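Same chain as my last thread, 153 residues:
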Amino acid sequence: MRRDTGFSLVEVTLSIGIIAVALVAIMALVPVGLNSGRDAIDATRSSLIGQDVQARVKGSITSATFLGSSDVTLQPWFYDRDGVLVDVTANGYSAAVYRADAIIHSTWKAAPPNVDATVLRPVTVTLGWPINPTTHFAVGNSATSFTFYVRKP
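reply #2:
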C-alpha cells in the first residue's frame, strides 16, 4: 500500500484563504499607521516652531510693548516643510508651509495668583498649516495654539 504525502487541494485552498484574510487585515492598518506618523511629525514640527517663535517674541520685547493699553500683533512668521524660518521677502511664499501669528496681550483674562501684571504679559501664538501661497493664510483645519508669558525688559 502506497502512502500519499503532500497536501490536498482543500488544505492548500484553506491555507491560502487564511493567509489572504491575514494580509487584508494587515493592509487595513497601513493607512492608520501613515496618518499616525504624519500627526506625530506635525506635532514635533509645531513644537519646534513654537520654541523658535517664543525665542523670537522674547527677543522683540521692548519696554514700549508694556506701556500700551492695547494688544500688540506681531508680524507673522513663515516656516518651510522642515520647520525652518522662510525669508518671504527674499524667497516668496512658495516654500512656506506653516504660518505663526503672535499676539502680546495687554491685559490678563485671569491673572495667576501672586503675579504682577505690569511685569508679565501673556502671548498667544497660533500656528496653522498648510498655507495658501496666494493668500498667505492657513487652509484646512490643521492648527494649534499655545500661550506663554513674557517679562518686561
